Recover the amino acids of this structure.
């Protein structure tokens, strides 16, 4: 039943490590997104993919690399994690434009 | 560039009282507008959206919002709040295939 799912829900890791967050949607949407929500609850788009093609890349450090193996999946890989990467990361999906459906979020803590 | 302003960082309302959360946007054309709600530790849930047509839109959980082009506003209202409405509320504008969020308004309900 879950429309947009993310794994893991929580991720605690050391600085310098590499980690991945996975996202899957079963809504048949063509577009998927990654957002970062900081400690002040500010939500900002990071990436958007349409039919596996990168559409939006919002001045995100190149340590962050999204990968879309197919339309239903958009994973986020982060290299050399830094303290400032600690945040909640949300995946979302939508049809071409309009209403976006959000996943439950992944809380990343970098120690 | 599109932007959204939510001037109220935190609002406290008594249970049963009416509520209005303010949202102003900046976008060159007619925007798509959204209100999302985020309960503590949860993802974002869409309350309502405006694409075109009737400027008063009804959403879930008894919420409504009115699009006022002359004021570039899309304020969220509810006639009588319930304790379960305590959450963070985000206004968002969709333009250029990108969703831009406001900084959110935290709603506290007092008995």
């Amino acid at each position: 039943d879950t429309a947009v799912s993310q794994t893991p829900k929580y991720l605690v890791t050391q600085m310098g490590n590499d980690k991945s967050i996975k996202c899957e949607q079963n809504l048949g949407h063509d577009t998927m997104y990654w957002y970062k929500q900081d400690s002040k609850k500010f939500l900002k788009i990071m990436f958007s993919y349409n039919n596996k093609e990168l559409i939006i890349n919002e001045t995100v450090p190149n340590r962050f690399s999204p990968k879309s193996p197919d339309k239903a999946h958009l994973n986020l890989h982060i290299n050399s994690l830094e303290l400032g990467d600690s945040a909640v990361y949300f995946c979302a999906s939508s049809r071409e434009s309009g209403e976006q459906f959000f996943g439950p979020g992944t809380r990343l803590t970098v120690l | 560039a599109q932007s959204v302003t939510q001037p109220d960082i935190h609002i406290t309302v008594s249970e049963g009282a009416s509520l209005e959360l303010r949202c102003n946007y900046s976008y060159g054309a007619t925007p798509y507008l959204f209100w999302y709600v985020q309960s503590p530790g949860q993802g974002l849930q869409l309350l309502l959206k405006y694409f075109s047509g009737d400027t008063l839109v009804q959403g879930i959980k008894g919420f409504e919002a009115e699009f006022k082009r002359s004021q570039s506003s899309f304020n969220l209202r509810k006639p009588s709040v319930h304790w379960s409405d305590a959450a963070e509320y985000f206004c968002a504008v969709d333009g250029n295939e990108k969703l831009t969020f406001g900084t959110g308004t935290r709603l506290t309900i007092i008995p």
Q: What stands out?
A: The two ends of chain B are 41 Å apart (CA to CA). Chain B touches chain A at residues 32, 34, 36, 38, 42-46, 49, 51, 88, 90, 94, 97-101, 103-104, 106 (CB under 8 Å). The first strand of chain B starts at residue 3 and ends at 5.
